[in-house]
Amino acid sequence: MVLKPRLRGYASTSAPAKRVGWDTVNHLIQQKPAYAKLPDRSVLSVAGPGVGQFLDGLISGKMPEDSARAHFYSVFLNAKGRILYDVFLHSNAAAESEPGYLIEYDARPSEAPPLLQMLKRHLLRSKIKVRDLSENYDVWTMWSPHLTNPGENLWEYHPTGVIEPAFALDNTHRWGTQPMPFVDSRAVGMGTRALVPKSSPNTLVLADDVAEVTAEDYRLHRYLNGVPEGVDDLPPMHAFPINSSLDIMGAQRAVIWGRNISRERDT
Description:
This is Aminomethyltransferase folate-binding domain-containing protein. The protein is of the alpha+beta class. It has seven helices and twelve strands. The N and C termini lie far apart (67 Å).
C-alpha cells in the first residue's frame, strides 16, 4: 500500500491570485519631496581649451557655446547610431580660458567600451585632459511629487519625423547653468541632479521636509514618468535613441537625428 502525504492546513484548490491594483502601487510612491544617492553613476572630468569642439563630434547633440556655461543631457553613439552611454554633462568651468564638464554616466559593465578609454582615443594632440573623478563625487537627485507643470510644452516637427521640444532650439539654459544644480528636463517633475564632493557632503542643502530614499525609489519615480536611464533601460550597442524617444527628452538635435535615422534604416 502506498501512503500519500497529507498537507494539513491547505485547501485542495488554490485561491485565485490577487491582482495588483493602483492602490498597491500608489503606496510605494513618495508623497513628499525626496532625494536619493545614485551609486551606479560615475563621473569623468573633461576640461581644457576647445573642450566644446572636442565633444561636439562625439555626442549626439549640439554643444552650447563654452561661454554659456550651460549643463545639458546627451548620448554617445557608435558608428551605427546605437547608444553607448546616456550622459549628463555638468558645466564645471574653472575660468573663461579653461572650460570643462563633469560627465555623469552609468559605468556598470556592458558591451560598450569604457568611456574613459573611448574619450582618450580621440584626444590625439588635443590639450584636453580627461580624468576619472568617481572617487571625488557622489551623484544625488532630488524631486517633489507635487511639482506642477511650469508651462505648456511646445514641439517642433521635422521632415525626418523627429519631434523636439521647441525651447531646446533656442534656450541653451534649459538644463541650468553653473553653479546652479542640473535641472532634469527629460520630463516634467523629474527634479534636479547634483554632483556633491565626497570631501564636503554638507554642500547638499535641503529643506527639513525632504526625505532620503533609495535608488530603487528613484527608479520607480523615473518609470512613472516614462524616463529611461542607464544600461538596464538603454542596452549599450543595441538600443537606438528613437526607441526611447530621447529626442523628445532633449538628447538630440534634428540635424543629428536626420543622419542617425538614415543609419537606422540601413541597419
